[in-house]
Amino acid sequence: MKCGVLMLVLCLGFCFGQNPVITGTVSDSLGPVSFAGIWCAESHTGVVANEAGQFNIILPNGSKTLQFRALGYATQTLNIVNLKVPRITITLHPESYTLNEIEILSGDDPAVAIIQRALQKQPQYLQQTSTYSCNTYIKGLQHIDRIPKNASRLVSLSKGSIRDTQALKGTVYLSESISQYHSAAPNDEKEIMISSKLSGNNRSFSFNNYSGMKLNLYKPFLSLGAATERPIISPLNAAAFSYYRFFLKGTFTENGQRIHKIKVVPISKNEPCVYGHMYIHDSTWQVCGYEMVISKARQLQFADTLELACRYVWLPDDLLWMPQLQELRFNFNVFGFKGSGYFIASLTQYKINPETVKGFFNAAAIEIQNGSNTKDSTYWNAQRPIPLTHDERADYRRKDSVFAFEQQTRIMDSVDRIKNRFKPLCILTGYTWQKRSQQVSYNVSGLLDEGWQFNTVEGHRLGTEIQRLWRDSTYREHESALQLSYAFALKRFNISGYHQFLYNPLKNSSIKIVVQNGVQSFQPLLPFFKFQNTWYSLFAQLNYLKLYWSRSLKLVYESEWSNYCFFKGRFSFEERSALQNTDLSTWYKGFGNTYTSNAPFHPNNNNLIFKTQYASIQELEWTFRFKQRYIALPHLKINNGSPYPKVQIGIKSALPLNKDWAQFIFTRISLWHTFKLNRFGMLQCRAESGTFLNAKNTGLMDYKHFYGNLTVFQNLPIDGFRNTPYYVYSTLKPYLQWHSELHLKGLLLDKVPVLNRLNVQEVLGFHSLYIQDKSPLTQVVLGIEKIAKIFRVDVTYTLQQEPSRSWYFNVGLVQPF
Q1: Which pTM was predicted?
Q2: Can you tell me the distance from the alpha carbon of 462 to that of 321, in angstroms, rounded to the nearest whole number?
Q3: For residues 640 and 628, what is the distance between their CA atoms, to the nearest angstrom?
Q4: Which residues 6+ apart lie within 8 Å of 18 measured at CB?
Q5: CATH number at residue 44
Q6: Whole-number Å distance between alpha carbons of 141 and 659
Q7: How does DSSP classify residue 211?
Q8: How many structural domains comprise the chain?
Q9: pLDDT-derived band of residue 565, with 50, 70 and 90 as boundaries?
Q10: pLDDT digit string (tens) for 266-295?
Q11: Does residue 430 sit within a domain?
Q12: Cα distance between residue 35 and residue 51, in whole Å
């Protein structure tokens, strides 16, 4: 009996000791108000209503009043001391504005004086709002509303992963995350993800991060990552009056503070600017909110419109306005898929100028804690400040149930059996067999993946690659492959294979063994080159590919020694034999060309150009990325760039195990860097210098080769030369090469009628090569890129070349940065 009474007392004490919970809806005269803020005035904490205006707030101890805020509406205050019902409905009314007298200069709009005062304070507030910490909650949602008419083809190509066209519609991404965000002037930041929830996959992590959506109007440019080609010019840029017009729409009072609503209008239609409204606090001249739009004309990528909104909160102890709720909404239309989405961030628990231990701001820009994706629904119901809508709850239930069902071994194996069915199209595209329950897969390449080729040395060649990939529970990988092909004119098989063991994914550490018995190009090949050589040979009798026979055994080791140093070592024994043309057939002779021999330096010499050679090659390579930032996952490290140039040092040597073996030492140093020029685009640069020492018994395969191109279709990296023979500049002598490309990101073409609607961009390039005892090579390139998003057209002028070959035109693909 005593125990029963005691339990009853404890239960009653627990129930009545809980903080009260208030739920409700925020609306206006037309319906729900999305993402309104509900703020406890005494504790400076709060929650956010969802898209349907619904909210749920646990009242901290000592709470007496709630404030309901939304941009464009007057703040409503509710006394909750004597509140009788736990569910309420709040109606917000549009803010009433007044046009007060403000100093007007030279007949300008009153907003000009306000912006001028805000610009005077800009350096001060940029410093003060750059060092802080806060808690962030982010929810991201994306859904597809309309699919293209030919979407049924995607179902057939998906090999069973997409059941029908309806599976392509609806919510495609729903995720939540809770993080601790830390920032320190001038550019240090760190985000620690505590919890992550991804609809339909509880094994992955959310893509949400505040670092990617944070905007500070006090900075001269607003970076939106891949969303825009050029950074957006801030309305508080020092040159703001050159890009914007400002109009005062009115002044209102909130909690005793006067706030000015200012309309922001870009002067030019094509400059990277925003359009909308900005709220400025009177007397302190701080930003306290904004509602802005970026249109397609502003170089948006894969989105038609981008809406930015932010509501700020006043921190009385620090005399600062800081973001409380930040929204990013977008509409997109990509290849016929139309949809929309948003990311919304709620920020609480601000600490301005917090104390941090030395070394806290390390190279890890984002850390995702182990177990952050294992939080249950009880945790999320208690922690999320924005309630889920009915559709969001349904999406979680449906997709999480399907995911749990499909993760059963028998179901997973059954689905794999359907996907593993062989289809005739696989002969062209390749075939994949997988068993996900054992994390193993096999892949056989198809004819379109260089399965069929032609060159004058081998003739027609058919081949395939069989690849096996297996991953264990610690994310270590074993990858094996066998390449097998037959050359019909040469009447020989090419056989090669490798096995690679990735034993430390966090440091990308691996060991690889490679065995080869087949043809090899004298110089490293770019993607699609064998494909181009096939068609240029058969239709134009231009055989650019030069080959030799190689038997080799190679060991490759690579590992990240530290965050800024990556090491790669290669050790091999090689036997090299010369080859000659065996098949001079062609499908078309209308161009009047004649095949050249397989001797790059002697195009008319059809004999074998060298005797069998042997080499013992050792190559060491160090790549340095100083101050490199990275994203730390529990099982993976994703490098995220460095503000300093990338430096690479390489040493390659051939040790003569016999007097007839190759002997040399080759050293080189390379530098890469991309300079971000804000509204002027970006400048890519690469420089490299190298030299050979004590070179004896070397073959052409040991030379330093430079990327050249003589085809109309080119896919050159930045260190490639246009309209340049492939082996003319191959050398054993000291050299220096310099490459630079200025990507203006539409700075000029945005001002040209018609072209500014195509979102194409201009490129200026300069390439030069200096080799001892050889005339220098200099090229100037004028190009247009982002044609249909992926293509690029270049016109190249080469100095020190006869006039008939000085100008050159080619088409290629846009290269990633």
Answers
A1: 0.87
A2: 68
A3: 7
A4: none
A5: 2.60.40.1120
A6: 68
A7: H
A8: 4
A9: very high
A10: 998 878 899 999 999 998 999 999 999 988
A11: no
A12: 6
